[in-house]
Amino acid sequence: MKAVRLHALWDPRPGFQLGPKDVEGKVTWLGSKVWRHPEVKVEEIPRPEIKKPTEVLLKVRACGICGSDVHMAQSDENGYIFYPGLTGFPVILGHEFSGEVVEAGKEAINRRTNRPFEVGEPVTSEEMLWCGYCRHCADGFPNHCENLHELGFDVDGAFAEYIVVDSKYLWSLRELEESYSQDKLFLAGSLVEPTSVAYNAVIVRGGGIRPGDNVVVFGGGPIGLAACAVLKQAGGAKVILSEPSEVRRKIAQEIGVDVAVNPLKENLVEAVLEVTKGMGAKLYLEATGVPHIIWKDLEAMIWKARGINATVVIVARADIQVPITPEVFQVKRAQIVGAQGHSGHGTFPRVISLMASGMDMTRIISKTVSLEEIPEYLVRLQTDKDLVKVTAVNR
User: Fold this and answer.
1) pLDDT the model gives residue 366
2) Is residue 183 pLDDT above 90, yes or no?
3) Are 294 and 286 in contact (CB under 8 A)?
């Protein structure tokens, strides 16, 4: 079968030391400090096979390109990959996907029916492969599993014709069948994972909002746009997006954003205070990946607003230090929380239900491509901000 694989050289930066979960030459939790000279290839490899009774063989129908895919394939002036997290190469990229069941083990249980999966079931998958028995998993925090592996990062992912996944990570998409045609159903299904990242950030980690609260989202990429959609569904009175791209601002308004501001041409702080009548926002989401650029405005909004008790959620990955003014957060009774991943707390089924009830995230898909075109778009997405989500489809 065809697959898109990333190869890279294990060549740690000076001073790097293996962590307790790193494996010399194979896997690290600090990708940008180890992997060098990434190369993406479309290859012919054997089709995977089920090896355990709980596993399911899926025909991949749609898989989106994530910013992490782009950053794994992108290198700095010294040749090191941009992505800072868990990585093990070579690996088949791709983790935002949907597909249909081709074969299922006898113990592969479908949560929709509480019975074994049947051939033809449309599904999506979590990409974080949590163990379920470490302390963090037992405490209900699978996103921080001590034995974590990730599809498309250190385990072969879904930029391929087929993939094998354990059934405990799969979620049925049958609920979408009344609202989406089959092709669109699989496109929507491929967006469950990134939308669940946004849901985890603003609802689970950020604590959600009360209907009538105001929110500000920095960054109109897929996660930022998904967060806007979720927050509008949650009752956001004024959902405000800061995003330089006109294309992305237009899409944001289509999915329910009340005000989309170009921070390069408008005074963002003044705009937010005007729209909220001086009260500011209850929740601020950092989804840009450049916190050092947006932080000054973010703190100014909190400080100048009449409101208190704001929560700042950091969801974008960025190995960047940001100077924080403690006085702002003390006086304004504000807090900062980090958000990683998408699993747990019923995130996936709730996102699927939101999509079934009318939250159509397929509006953010700019283009559908073939597997052979993935390497080209991994490069284009480094600079072309008019492309929001590019999705590979297999029919």
Assistant:
1) 97
2) no
3) yes
